[in-house]
Amino acid sequence: MPVSSRHVLLWAMLALALWTAGAFLLPLVFGVILAIALWPLNQRWAGPGDGLRRRVFVPLGITLATGLAFILPLTVALIEVAAQGQALLDWLSRAQTIGVPAPDWLPGLPLVGHRAALWWQLHLQQPDALMNGMTESALGTAAEWALATGSGILSRSLLLLVGLMALFFILRDGEKLGAQARSLAQHQLGPFGERFSDELVMAVRGTVIGTIVVAIAEGALIGGAYAIAGVPHPVFLGFLTAAFAMLPFGAWAVFSVVSVYLAITGQPFSAALLFAYGAAVMVIGDNFVTPYLVGAKLHLPLLFAFIGVFGGLGSFGLVGIFVGPVIMAGLLIVIRELWPSDSEATV
């Protein structure tokens, strides 16, 4: 069979395989990214040889631990949301019976305080001011949200399972798969192919470390400040801060809202301290810790990181938080290869 015919057959089968696996491509890519990031840990724990420890026990243990790391925060968040949903329904029931008293600080607002207090007294403070229709609407909305959330959790649980399966098999057969990938890259791209694959692997590890590890640390540190400041539900807010810390400026939004809550509830000094502490944690984490862990050469510029994260979110969903920056890192590697800076050209 001529070479051109083999290439046509290869690309045709590849296109057919991608079309067949289209619904599972993102979790598969996510599994590959996690496997590349966790590969050094797998190698360290597996040790030499090719026994059950290396082929089964260590990859399976890492896979189960990774799954737990995703499931545990989600479980805590769902429990907290359910509890808050019940608290909201209880509040609506009380408000329907006795009304909602105006906060003490409302009349003191400049310019609009008096009118705001009168409006509150007329529409919210009187019993039965909140109409039954509003309560029924809230109950209906809550039921629809619960149904949609349950359906989304089931579908994403399947995708997570596929990603974890890919993680296990790649950790188990990583050496063989890595050698094949390097050989293919070198065959298709020449000497640059091997360098590209090595730098892309480093970029993937740096992206995961810089995204997950730093976000968890920032969420834990700021979550401890929530507890010290006496903010309700500090554990849930700590998880929320860690989750939003994976987005550019995300954690800033969370602890800023919490600081505003403290100020509104009569704790302006605690609010100022919390905001200053959160800002210090974020500045140190984003400008010193992340570049140290990732490496200055692989650290994405802010614009690239911003486009990678939010563009990835828009294109690929939550998995895009990791896929988008990896794509931007790959683009940077190609740009540096085609147009090296003076310092790189002299190396």
UniProtKB/TrEMBL annotation:
InterPro entries named in the record: AI-2E-like (IPR002549)
Its membrane topology: Multi-pass membrane protein
Keyword field: Membrane, Transmembrane, Transmembrane helix
Cellular compartments annotated: Membrane
Membrane-spanning residues: 12-39, 60-83, 153-171, 208-229, 235-264, 271-290, 302-335
Family label: Belongs to the autoinducer-2 exporter (AI-2E) (TC 2.A.86) family.
The protein's name in its UniProt record: AI-2E family transporter
Organism: Croceibacterium selenioxidans
